[in-house]
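Exam review. A common question shows you a sequence with its structure tokens and asks you to describe the fold in words. Practice with the pair below. Do the first one on your own.
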Amino acid sequence: MTSMRFLILFSFLCVLFVAKSQTANGLPASSFTMEGGDWYDNWRIDRNYAEGPNGYIPNLATETLNENKELAYSIGQRFKADYPDETERAVAILKYVQKWTEYGYDGDNVVRDGVPQEEWAWNADEMAHAFNENTGVKAIGDCEDMAFLCGTIYVGAGFDAAIIDATDHCALLIWLPEFSNANVYWDLTNDGRDAGWIWVEATGSSNPLGWTPPDFENGGWTAYGIGNLQFVGEPTSTTSTSTDMDTLMTIVIIIISIIFSLLRRL
């Protein structure tokens, strides 16, 4: 009986140790320090500022990819195993992120030392640990938080991805030229490819994969490759299905007008 009690106690302690170890590894940025009015994490990334050598775009992706991959990356691996078809996988990932995240302003949801943070960025693992599929709790974040979460999941699922730095906005591109439902297929400088990047917009619960918001269809933004991709590119040309559809609709309207005109003469 004594041996059995010891075995049970030992097993229980092992479970606690494993659980604690996994939690400790879950948040690479484990501490924050205030410098010059901004909060820096222990990776020396400024969580309050997007631009510059210490800005969070695209630097925050390094905390959850390659040798630092953890929960968000493993979610992507799960999708890769569950969805052999790339297109189905890409659609499912976006729907998953939209389901388990909720858009919220930083100033309403992030407080440091009692001070609301008007600008703040979470890394992908911090977001992934903030939602719970068992309890139904969602992670709250804004555009850059969702972009980094999507970026790490998509890379974990086997996609090439790039963080978009646009005016007052952050989003994601993935390389999926065979996807048939995008309104724009982007061609970027310095990536060595033709048009085939599609937009991932997770800030709305119903935004479809491949939908580039109208405000960004004319370019004016920069894309940063993440993971194993090391490029900084800008859109040079596009293949737009929406333009083709507009042309087709115009032709249809003209044909219908001609038919009605002929019918009136009979």
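Now try the second one, then compare your answer with the model answer below.
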Amino acid sequence: MAKALLEGKKGIIFGALDEKSLAWKTALRAHEEGAQIVLTNAPVAMRLGKINELAEICGAEVIPADATSVEDIENLFTKAMEIVGGKVDFVLHSIGMSPNVRKDFPYTDLNHDFFLKTLDISALSFHKILQTAYKKDAINDWGSVVALSYIAAQRTMPGYKDMADAKAMLESIARSFGYYYGKEKKVRVNTISQSPTLTTAGSGIKGFNSFYHYANDIAPLGNASADSCADYIVMLFSDFCRMVTMQNLYHDGGFSYALSSDEVLAHYED
């Protein structure tokens, strides 16, 4: 019998909300591939979502943590290592929220206090997680950290507003921290630029449905599903990707190389 891809590995998954979320799908796949996982989300998200149902399916513990709070993250890693009996092997950052997007402020008239919240929740939280894990030496050598990004970090997509800036920062943090973590501990840090995906978070973006279908038509392979994204994340957690780090990896059916920014803007203008 073939060995499960993550057999014997242990990890922390941030951001599972409900059955549509990429973190939820990843937790299921990691569990299927033999991993022991700890689930976490912000207390408010836990009240709104179904994380305890997922925990029951995966036999996982749930530790509430606000990813913008270093104190919460420190507590999370301490308790997670107690639960799994040592360091973890992988971490998924699937966190993003913009008050400006939710309230439909145009990019040229953003509320800057909201903008700071967007950056803190969606990007700086990644640095806080990495920095805490680094200081605590909480990830095994050759471990893997993955964060979810989007092509708006690279191309102009007006409907994404300040989340585009947050994703650009997220990818930069992966490159910068990936260098230090790789040199010191051989820990890999990557981001995945996923197709438009029918998740609860995605549905909150103005014009998302039309752009989802547009991307599906343009991409040679069509949009990558949430399930296939979970497969890709699990592969990055595995030992098959031991030499992949500091990368932004497009998982979008070829969409990122099949159009120009002018085409995107024309679509929104239409």
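Model answer, second protein: The mean pLDDT is 92. The first strand starts at residue 10 and ends at 14. Full marks require stating both points clearly.
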